[in-house]
Amino acid sequence: MTPAALADLVRSAAVRALGARGLDPGAVPAEITVTRPRDPAHGDYATAVALRVAGPVGADPREVAGWLADLLDADAAVAAAEVAGPGFVNLRLAAAVDHDAVRRVLAEGPRYGVGDRTPDDFHPRAAPTAAQTAAVGAETARYAALNTNKSTVDIDPAVWGKRTDSNPLFRVQYAHARLVSLSRNASDLNVTPSTGDLELLDRPAERALARLLAEFPDVVAHREPHRLTHHLDDVADAVRGPVTDRALPIGDEEPGPTHGARLALCAAARQVLATGLGLLGTTAPERM
């Protein structure tokens, strides 16, 4: 479920909540947003729609939030909906929603999240100078320009010119190459990705990565290059550590359904990185 789809679900619930109490459903904004809380302990997403509609309908914001939470809590896509603060609603998605995102990526392949977008839709606000391009290379300079929403491009060769984690492009490309290498190693061990047991992806890091994959179509739809580069950076960071470290059997461990599920998640992440880099006119190397 994309954030846009979740926002539609929240809006529908808000309209029903007001209508059921004889209040004006027209008070619900045509467009609402859901955001990721800074603290994961507060849920996967949060909405402030109750705060926006309470005044116009003459109700207490926390009471409106409670009506909304009750309806959302009953939806199969929502694991829990809780009222917080003056009238926020914190939402935790059902695990099946995260798993569906992985299935969608693998089913749609390079078409996932793209729609009618092409690399021509993603241009930097300002082009790098000839000197900047000479210092770090054409591909890196262009990516650095795409990575900012400012009208001027500041490219530090000490950052962008090195093959280290401090270089955003290197970090994303390396994550892609690492996932390709993981796939090759899995093939050598006769371990294949499988979407049949995705319910085994129950670790927080795995679900967080799946959620990032679900958000990819919304990010692309905005056609804002810097938003896409930052999202790819988040995906690259999310594939580290526990997600990839246990994707393959270790030592005498026998391959099992959990390995197949983790490899499916990694394959989906690789696809999103490749697609995103392609939209930005950047290569997705298989070896680095």
Structure description:
The protein is mostly helical. It has 2 domains: 3-93, Gyrase A, domain 2; 98-279, Orthogonal Bundle (Isoleucyl-tRNA Synthetase, Domain 1). It has 12 helices and 3 strands; from the N terminus they run αβααββααααααααα. It has helices spanning 3-19, 49-57, 61-73, 95-108, 130-136, 138-146, 157-160, 168-188, 204-221, 225-238, 242-245, 257-279, and strands at 45-47, 78-84, 88-93. Strands 1-3-2 form a 3-stranded antiparallel beta sheet. α4 crosses α9 (204-221), α8 (168-188) runs antiparallel to α12 (257-279) and α9 packs parallel to α12. The longest helix has 23 residues, at 257-279. It is globular, with a radius of gyration of 21 Å. The two termini are 33 Å apart. This is arginine--tRNA ligase. Keywords: Aminoacyl-tRNA synthetase, ATP-binding, Ligase, Nucleotide-binding. Its EC number is 6.1.1.19. InterPro entries: Arg-tRNA-ligase (IPR001278), Arg-tRNA-synth_N (IPR005148), Arg-tRNA-synth_N_sf (IPR036695), DALR_anticod-bd (IPR008909), tRNAsynth_Ia_anticodon-bd (IPR009080).
Short structural description:
With 288 residues, this protein is mainly alpha-helical.
CATH topology of the largest domain: Isoleucyl-tRNA Synthetase, Domain 1
Low-pLDDT sequence parts: none
* Basic shape: globular
Structural class: mainly alpha
Based on the structure given, which CATH architecture of the largest domain is correct? Orthogonal Bundle
Overall residue-averaged pLDDT value: 95
**How many extended strands?**
3
What's the CATH H-level superfamily name of the largest domain?
A: Isoleucyl-tRNA Synthetase, Domain 1
Strand order of the largest sheet: 1-3-2
CATH class of the largest domain: Mainly Alpha
Helix content: 40-55%
User: How many helices does DSSP assign?
Assistant: 12
SSE topology string: HEHHEEHHHHHHHHH
Tell me the distance between the termini: 33 Å
From the alpha-carbon coordinates, what is the Rg to the nearest angstrom? Answer: 21 Å
